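Input:
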Amino acid sequence: MTDARRAVGVIMRATFLAAVLGFFSLPLLWLASAPFDAHPTITASVPSLTLANFRSLLDNPYVLSSLRNSVIQAAASAALVVVLAALAAYALSRVRVPGRDALLYVLLLLSSVVTGTAAMVPLFELATRLNLIDTHLGVVLTLSGGLLPAAIFILKDFMDATPTSYEESARVFGASPLQILGHIVIPLVRPGLATIAVWAVANVWGSFLQPFILLRDPDKAPGSVILYTLYTEGGSPRLDLISTFSLLYSLPVVVMYVFVSRRYGFRFHGGIKR
Amino acid sequence: MSRADPAVSPAGLGRRRAVGFMLPALVLIGVFLVFPALWTIYLGLTDYRLTGLAAADPHVVGAANFTEALGDDRFRSSLWLTVQYVLGSAVVGQAVLGFALAWTLRNRPGPVKRITEGLVLLAWILPSSVVAFLWIALLDRDEGTLNAILHTPGTAWLLDHPMSSIIVFNVWRGTAFSMMLYGAALENVPPSHLETARLAGASTVQQLRDVVLPRIRGHVLTNLLLISLWTFNDFTAFQITAGGPEGRSEILPMYIYNVALSGGRLGFGAAISFLVLLINLVFAFAYLRILRGRREVVVP
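Output:
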């Protein structure tokens, strides 16, 4: 390769990367500047630094209650998904149930086919008939049902990878299956459980469609829905509030993502998303 | 119970107990995933409404919803917008940009790679409500950052070019997945083969076509299928345009919401939902066919 050709390659690469960096950072600039700006406008700009926006955020009743709702829904869904998926994955990993692999694939297939979009009408109807409209439980059950198949699939992988000899000796000493699961298997697959929990929390935290259609009462709505109503309803949006809230609402997801990829490495087939 | 019995686990978990362990998860999945899918079929055959006479006493109208949808201009325009959205933002936008990034950043550890990957990933993991508002702020008519940078004050991007806006938005939002998948795929291409091709005088395009593509063909297919499926079902753009103005960015997910839950025509909306389910099923089956024989599964 000639020097000239190499130089052209370097320049093209640098130009491309600069364009990509610009494209991806441009929308994020506003998130970095506006929350600390004393007089935020919708244009990203160097702010006159202040933390007052965070204080006014705490004074808004909807903001705090929506964060509480987000925590309730995310924690409950994660707990439900982790417990039910661990039980099911353990049974599927250790006992040869007929049609096991087919069952797993059908469930996985269903969870990617029956999305919130494709099922919003029946989910809304179902919640109405079961009196689950305007309840945290409705959101939790709906979201958990969608997350469970993938969670079982990933956890079964973790369970398959742990040796069964401990379980055999525990059984010799008379431990029950539930004791064996709780005292031996769970500690061994703790990284898998943590991954699933974080993945479920991130999913529920960012979910919009399900809480949006299942919750009419703003007192029950999570942060993602309140954020949407903050800028769609009522005349001029309170930019100081929206920008600060956006930043606050994003932080947990970013922190969890960094935590999991640091601690357990980024396992691609268990990628954290949606 | 003998040790050789395959139905008994090392922990003494019999088949009956195993079913007991699986039951809670299966019930939840059955009620909130399988049942809604089946119920969509039935609801789609009725004239069920949110309020009024047909709410109390819905009638089975057969395929009337489907024939009405096919003759409806708003539905056909929505279908066409969805095709543009999936092809433009996923198949072309995310896949091409994602591959270009993975290719440019391969074997190049250092701060530039870390920063680029970090930014692209950030766009992917932030909550959808947050990114939607970031784009509204970026594209705002009077004070948007884009107009300030381009010196085009007063350009209402979301009103004048709603479809292009959400297509570019979705490229920004979803490129990370393609970038990471292709990044992993490119590790399967032996550097020595590329070196040989380069020494033989092959151009970059020739290297990509003759050395790289044959080795990552499976990944390319997997990627295209998954990002198409996700884009097809994505509701995030609703938070930017809600389908407007005048339905010019009303892709199918927004159409279903606007017609069924906002407009109250639940039966008609369910019929459209059923079509979405069928299309999803085609994507998923194609994906499973590729997957057969491979262990890795990408979880959404």
